[in-house]
Protein 1
Amino acid sequence: MMVMTDFAIEAVGLSKSFGRITAVANFDLKVVTGTVHGFLGPNGAGKTTTIKLILGLLKPNAGSIRVLGFEGGGKKIDVRRKIGYMPELPKLPFILKGRELLEIYGEIYGLSKKDRSNSAKRLLELVGLSDRADDRIAHYSKGMQQRLGLAQALVGDPELVILDEPSLGLDPVGMVEVRGIIKKISSEGRTVFLSSHLLHEVQQTCSHVTVINRGAKMIEGSIPTLLEKLSESNKITVELEKVSDDIMKALEGLNFVEDIKWEGKRAEILCSTTGDFRADVSRAISDAGGLIIGMKVDERGLEELFLELIKGRA
Ligand code: ATP
């Protein structure tokens, strides 16, 4: 039954085991329609298994999954047709030419000869392969193969595009190209669900993220919200014109200060809670007769948070 939804993917309590190995455990996921949603986790976290559950290629042991408003994910062929999928390191038939591959996929999707030719042409343009369209895939670089993989995921004009580690094995130039294509895919109004173990890829490409580790959800939210949370740093470094006992006492007296490390005229102030304490620090120092020459808020990125999460410290 079709249910109107703001979520392209909605999973509740999803679990999947392979014998004694639990790949996904009581996992919840919400992917807002129209967003580029990062699915971040280290190797073996359960990303590919979750994707296969979404696609209906695997059956969950427990939990429910709704994709594009339909119960059961891509199990139903009508739903599956609306999902574009690029597997991790797609294995493309080397014997074919890029254009041929896309036209064959078009045929599978039931497009007329003219439509599949137009679709292949448009997609080759989108992924920047027009000038190599009639070369064999065997002669494509890794980056070109990956871009062709992205194009094949778009053949059926999908509403939802699922990309499993699209930048795996690419050099920085290849990564930038893939990032540009993902932006284009998103600007066409499609929802993109992108799995990655690369923080900066998710940070630069996605508007939302769900972090998974050992099959369980660690954190979720919009990238700006997460970054905002992180920018409420708990470490402030100030450089003073000169240090005095009064300044030291004033800083130690601030109720949010947990610890201060002095290194010459530089103080590293560790706060007990997160928040923006720059004004309080500045006022305390000037009230004690001091002068601030420099102030730096420790900006943690998603990378640091991610490492903390997977070490189980956050
Ligand atoms: P990677 O980025 O390395 O591909 P991942 O996050 O995609 O990792 P999964 O491939 O989902 O992780 O694997 C999660 C866990 O499930 C791993 O311990 C893996 O060995 C196990 N697993 C996955 N598929 C199977 C299977 N068919 N049979 C047995 N174990 C499996």
Protein 2
Amino acid sequence: MPTSRLKNCNVILSKRAFILAASAGLLTMSMPACAQAPAGKLKVVASFSILADITRQIAGERADVTSLVGANSDAHVYRATPQDAKTLKEADLIVVNGLGFEGFMPRLIKSSGSKAPIITATTGIKTLEKKKAGGHDHGHGHDHGKVDPHAWQSVEAVKVFTSNIEKGLIARDSANAAVYRANADTYRAKLDGLKVEIENLISAIPSEKRIIVTNHDAFGYFAREFGIRFESVQGISTEGEPSAKDIARVITIAKDKKARAVFVENMADPRIGAQLAKETGAKLGGALFSDALSDEKGPAPSYIALMKHNARALTEALKD
Ligand code: ZN
């Protein structure tokens, strides 16, 4: 067996695997141990589906990436399972959004006993203050913080996510640094292309027509980056049903501003959108994907597909 192969194998073994190998007396015959070591693949756990996809783009073949909150599921109200704690305990690396998005994560990570490094994808992004939804708090009586966590709705922010994840992977697995750098470069180029594509779609709509009503305030970053106005029913979180008063408020806004389209997200009760459309006379657009991917067969199985789908659905509804 050539030396270079041996060197690679040793680098790939994590400290824990190394100790196991030593105690099992495998070190003297490290070749067979290496040959069957898919230990070469990192176990990376991301908190939700969009972040898992972005992480996969950068990790490529070097990692198995798991998402705790799955497709079409809502991280705002997620309840962790015993399996999640086990998954975290076995992780080599954890990726979270941060900015208070995954309220369930800090306690879950602690109780799992995981010692894995944590990458906070939003570190260093240009954050956005939460919009005060009509100056009320939807009756929860508690505050989720001042910053809007839905940063992935900005392509520029996801370029920062990409660099943070790239650095985290390299720190954990420096032997494959060149692979992570190359994957991250490729992905950043795709993100640049995505941004231009969305800009082109939206620039075709006159700016005074770019008003949309949605059921939860997840599109602040998209609005800032691409110049669309969103008015929402629920405010930032999806906790709790929107009240009759919330819906009445949005109907008033939609009528006042002559909103041209009403959307509901993939995680929401479709009846809300139907009611809004009926009462405002605005067009009911297709589903927008805010906080979760669709499944593989759906229209948004990846982050890039999600952003393209949303941009097309929005511009489709806004043009006449
Ligand atoms: Zn959300």
Protein 3
Amino acid sequence: MKPRLPSLAVSLLVVLALLPATVGSANAAPASTPAPALVPQPSSEHALPGQSVSLDRSSRILVPQGSHDAVSAANYLAQVLRPSTGFALPVTIGFPRRDDITFDQWGAASLGNEGYTLDVTRGGVRISAHASAGLFYGVQTFRQLLPAGVEKRSKQAGPWTIGGVRISDTPRFAWRGAMLDVARHFFDVGQVETYLDELSMYKINVLHLHLSDNDGWRIDINGWPRLARYGGSTDASRGPGGFYTQAQYGEIVKFAAARHITIVPEIDAPGHVTAAQASYAQLNCDGVAPPLLNPGYSSLCVRSEVTYQFLDDVIGQLAAMTPGKYLHIGGDEALTTSAADYTYFVDRLQAIVHAHGKELIGWHQIEAADLTSGPVAQYWGTAGSADDVALAQQAKARGNKIVMSPADKSYLDMKYDAQTPIGQDWAGYNSVSDAYDWDPATFVPGIGESDIDGVEAPLWTDVFPTISDVDYMTFPRLPGIAEIGWSPESTHTWTGYRTRLAAQAPRWDALGLTYYRSPEVPWPAAA
Ligand code: TNX
């Protein structure tokens, strides 16, 4: 319970709250609060000892008049804070008081669209940015300044006190991605939305959805109804599968956009296509549809025009449903397609993607074809694999940017260690420190910071049927990839990171999130 103060004392505190920070420590902070443990680490963060803010039942969330972006960020924050604090937290216009959270859009343009400042001073909390994404990221950082109980969905005791701090933050890379394979095992709209919420806490801004593979086709395509209805009717565990209607896909896109996450849909081709070929005999060179879940490598019929009519329909519909610039065309493991056919195929597909007003991204093998300078190559090689490195250098030579997803660092389907009960190990084990302790700008010889758009952590689900498997493999590694994508390289130390990561666990506990308690991380005792 907060003691009631006599009104003279209240007036004095209000006056002090409005004075500059240099006035001294007459306004002593309540019980000392621990230094913030933020992931990703902001580019600049300074504690303001002796200052603090306590949210209470009179706190408000203030927005400037007429700012739609500030209202969205404010409403998002209110949704997080209201259930656990029990406070009304009205989103309104007004003169800031010391227990208010104030949004403004006067932030420095030099911090970019995703940059923001966050000040917790004796005058209150202020989140400032010049664009909508920055305000949203300010909210995500602010969440982590509050006690972990704020993440609970029922009323908690508080107090909701935050130590004084000045943060100025902007990301290192533009592309901070995660990938979810919904083809090997299907995850429904609600599960994908929960995953998006989890990703957004760490300022991830791309969710790449692997929508088709040998084991399943997961997006309804008009004119090709059997793709989803038959091709999506099972999964890698011979379960019932599933697919998204176009309306459901649109819902995911919208939900993601509200969290400043762009959906990048992938249709994998020319390989990884058994589900499509099982659905339509004309997609096979011999005109015979294989059974669903037919083992082995597959390839579309590269010299048949039906293949390109099919791809034009699929790409055209995906382009219309996807506001983002990029469509992912796969291009990996086309092991039954000849080199000449592969080049011919990727060239034709590139033209189709461009004709529908989009740019393509593909697994780095697409660099074997004749690309223009626009596409992006997603590097999934391991350290020192010469063929992969040569293709990355080819990407650079033709001006294609690279998204770094090295399998021996960022693959979330690899086991953590030999004891991990589920997962793969073809790229070795990816411990929590392996996933964090690498630099995308030095990983591939000859590929530097300016050649890279960013990083992405793929979660292949060949062997993961449930969403709690997905969470267990994602957490705690994904925050490390997110930090590599966001934070300046100068802040990168495993010893500092592991302590900040440990402080995330009570938040995951509060959210009911499944994660792996790696022995590498000094977790606080479980609540
Ligand atoms: C390789 S990585 C694949 C995927 C598998 C993954 C399993 C890539 C582009 N292709 O099809 O799911 O390994 O770890």
Protein 4
Amino acid sequence: MEQFSISKTFFPGVPLIDLSKPESKSQLVKACEDFGFFKVINHGIPTQFITELESEAVKFFSLPISHKEKTGPPDPFGYGSKKIGNNGDVGWVEYLLLNTNTQSDYHKFASIFGEAAEKFRCIVNEYVSRVKKMACEILEMLADGLKIQERNGFSKLLMDEESDSVFRLNHYPPCPTEFGESSKNLIGFGEHTDPQIISVLRSNNTSGLQISLTEGNWISIPPDSNSFFINVGDSLQVMTNGRFKSVRHRVVTNSSKSRLSMIYFGGPPLSEKIAPLPSLIKGEDDSLYKEFTWFEYKKSAFKSRLADNRLGFFEKIAAS
Ligand code: OGA
Ligand code: NI
């Protein structure tokens, strides 16, 4: 495997974790501590559920823009193009944001899909419920690995009926050739960390995803359509009092092929207090973060730019 040596951080390649192996628990903890990013195989999700959703997504993104726009704007759910959020971030991407808990958005799809909207909904639901189950299993293995008494300390937040989780389909069309040289490394999705607890990403075999372990250094992640890539989100970084790292990542457009990715973002209920788990700190004074609820964090993140250090606002200023 290609190896990178980047200033202080040596990156031996994306940690590959076989979920069927007993040693995966400690490997998961290490990957979350070292990088906040890893790839899982033997995840137990049959290919059929993945390819079915992929073909629905391809169908959706191939519709004329006027049709797709009928399912937008993303307020917060629906179709969006180029604009990411409301604070000036743009990228070479179009996307569909879906709520994982209620079915309320689907009337938007009925108008363009007709009866196929129902099928689309079923395929998304099936996929999301499987990926969520896998995310919960990973979170439980992590809790075990951290010797947290409550094995479901993290996963119960995703299992909660009120869990504020989101599902996102991103489509990065091929870069336009008229941009010539400058189309190299055109930004598809600007650098950011994911604010939730955990993100589960699956993409087709087109590259573009990069992670950053030290500022300004980007590592390209080879795509793998048969595996899932997992990101630690900001909330999990806080719940582990900084022991797990919320990984900075972005997508660059770099080929003549389009990239399609689907991401499940597992988040807590809005009213949930995000704070280090008691067993991971000696006392409240040990917490690196001020107290906040997921609602407060989301509100603050919505007001910020993608690249901002959104957690910075909630860090305790070290007393000197
Ligand atoms: C995201 C993200 C990566 C991708 O949507 O938060 O990081 O490959 N996406 O689309
Ligand atoms: Ni992301």
